[in-house]
Amino acid sequence: MAVTTGLSGNEIFCLATKGYAPGNIVVGNSTHSLGILGSIGSGFKSMLGGELTQITQLIEEGRKTAYQRLLQEANNHGATGITGVNSHLIFHGSNIEFLAIGSGIHATSAAPNKFSTSADGQELYAQLDAGYRPICFAFGNVAYSMGIGRGLMGGLKTLGRGEIKEYSHIFNHTRHLALSRIVGHAVEHNANAVLGIRTTILPFGGVNEMLMIGTASYSTQLPGDKMQDPVTSDMTNIEMWNMANRGYAPLRLLLGTSVYSLGFIGGITSALKSFVRGEITELTTLLYDARENALNIINEEAKAIGADDVVGVKTYVYQLGNGLIEFLAIGTAVKKLSTVKTESEQLIPQAIVVDQDTFYSSNEGVGSININRGEKPINAGSKINFMIIFAILIFTILFPHIIKALFQ
């Protein structure tokens, strides 16, 4: 019987070499309404800042329900596994649909244990060849808000320049909550690794959800203590295969966040200087220090856990509004182990060929978020830009002698 699969030709080829044939696309969904009382309650709590436990639980329950229905549909099709599992939020007016979607696959020989994975067909091939058996799709999430109350206090602190540790702490805390929850999910399913972790910040009813998805897995190559403390990795499985081929295993996904303020006076000075050509020294120094601080956080953690290296380090900069800038550094700590190796000496070409999109749409909906891009939907820039220009004009009128001194 013909199948309708989301797998590409390259993915089908890769999985065939590991004994799997394509199956049908499988879907699970659950639609929820926050309701008036829920909205009022969450709005009040957001004033306090930090995690919004009610919202976290609501999203978690919705995602879990959709995922369980995905598993049921795959079971109805007799699938051995599900690849490319993803979890989406889709807004339908005041209602929210939680959608889980993936592609079933069937073992062509003796059926192994059933599994689900966030990895696509190419990534799954690399994971299996590196010696990691997938167990289940895993996720960890946290809903949070900077909060009105915390924003008022933080707003006063933005008058000075430098790191605002209160904000650095809340961002570090929320990110590590999501990480600890995806690890907890893995422990529940007797996994000793969570692989291919992808991190996304999503809007949800006026607050933000940080979502981490990956695959809870098991490898005989890892030390026995990893059953209680699974390794975590944000490397792609193809990157992980390359490291495994050189004898390295992932230890931990590392996160470092610093929130800095340019300061009110410093911000206006830099804005005024931007009207003339030349380097803005204050901003250059601040941005350099902030990045170094975020990188130092993950370096110190890597040393503490005995890592040999931190690979795949990426740095991101986000405008938070009110003169605040967040710097995020993320990477994976690795260590060389004598037990680590790959089944094959080389990856097959089909595993690394990039599939090309053949459908394009320029009709992007207002406020639409692509979960694969990891963009951070915080603060529209137009209002902030207007306020900066307005402040510059007022400053120029009130303090003409300072303006004159700046350009001399």
Automatic annotation (TrEMBL):
TM stretches of this protein: 386-407
Domain of life where this protein originates: Bacteria
Record key words, sorted: Membrane, Transmembrane, Transmembrane helix
Keyword Membrane applies: yes
Name of a matching Pfam family: YbjQ_1
Family from the record: Belongs to the UPF0145 family.
Protein name (Swiss-Prot/TrEMBL): Heavy metal-binding domain-containing protein
Natural source organism: Legionella erythra
